[in-house]
Specification:
By secondary structure, this protein is of the alpha+beta class. Helix content is 16%, strand content 29%.
């Protein structure tokens, strides 16, 4: 089916009055799979950049985890380019299962070593778009994240319970730069630029600011405001930039948020 000449894959799409809809029953079937070819943003002999869909694990966390992004990307490369493209991919960073957006995998040991060093040094450009509860102004958040803030959840040292002394050795300095993009109904579309990249960093920092992400299920227990429903945590890794491991040239990749994110955004604009 096409709408105004563009192929439509969204069965829930709202068609505007006057749109031209064409259904061709003789058209070839689309090849379905866990990861479409359009998910590959870039690849060469050293790395592959892929647009992770929401609801997919980046890597296996437990034995038996299947259809992870790393496995699906490997299978997709093999399907696209044949034998020789099915070797294991090196993992240098992760996104939460609910989070969508741009990720990079290494295709050689040298590339993995170089990319991993850049992530450890925080020499990576990482820009996220998110929808958060409430009206939000521009701010910079700097805390030390700890695995257990005192109630079993990750959080910032001294936020949940009054700090006694300096942060422990397992506390990690974490910095998030927040910029509002658009005011919404009961929420704000924001840009979060990571100076560091810690587990759940954006989700924790926004929750501790009093503005948990829309769709948040974990770091929202302290929020007393009206909760906006969403199918998942509204967080999208929009931009990823780094120095290419072979050439050293700075490269950057960007992908728009997927349809579920856009649907929530449009609903809150209304």
């Amino acid at each position: 089916m096409t709408v105004n000449g563009e192929r439509c894959l969204d069965s829930a799409l709202r068609v505007a009055p006057g749109a031209v809809v064409i259904v061709d029953e003789r058209a070839p079937r689309l090849r379905r799979g866990p990861l479409p070819e359009s998910a590959i943003a870039y690849f060469d002999r050293d790395l592959v950049v892929v647009d992770k869909p929401p609801g997919m694990l980046s890597v296996a966390y437990e034995p038996g985890d299947k259809d992870t992004l790393v496995d699906c990307t490997r299978a997709l490369l093999r399907r696209m380019r044949g034998r020789g493209f099915d070797r294991a991919l090196g993992v240098v960073h992760r996104l939460d299962k609910d989070t969508s957006g741009v990720m990079v995998f290494a295709r050689t040991a040298d590339a993995k070593r170089v990319l991993a060093a850049q992530f450890r040094a925080h020499d990576i450009d990482r820009v996220y778009h998110a929808i958060a509860h409430g009206a939000i102004g521009e701010t910079r958040v700097q805390t030390h994240l700890v695995p257990d803030r005192g109630d079993g959840l990750r959080g910032s040292h001294g936020h949940f319970r009054r700090a006694k002394g300096e942060p422990s050795s397992d506390a990690k300095r974490s910095v998030t730069h927040v910029r509002p993009i658009e005011a919404l109904s009961g929420a704000t579309l924001i840009e979060c630029r990571l100076e560091t990249g810690r587990q759940h960093q954006i989700r924790i920092h926004m929750s501790e600011l009093g503005h948990p992400l829309v769709g948040e299920r974990v770091y929202i227990r302290d929020y007393a405001g009206a909760k906006i429903e969403a199918p998942r945590t509204m967080l999208h890794a929009r931009t990823l930039g780094f120095a290419h491991p072979r050439s050293g040239e700075r490269v950057s990749f960007e992908r728009e948020a997927p349809p579920d994110f856009q649907a929530v955004l449009e609903r809150l604009r209304g």
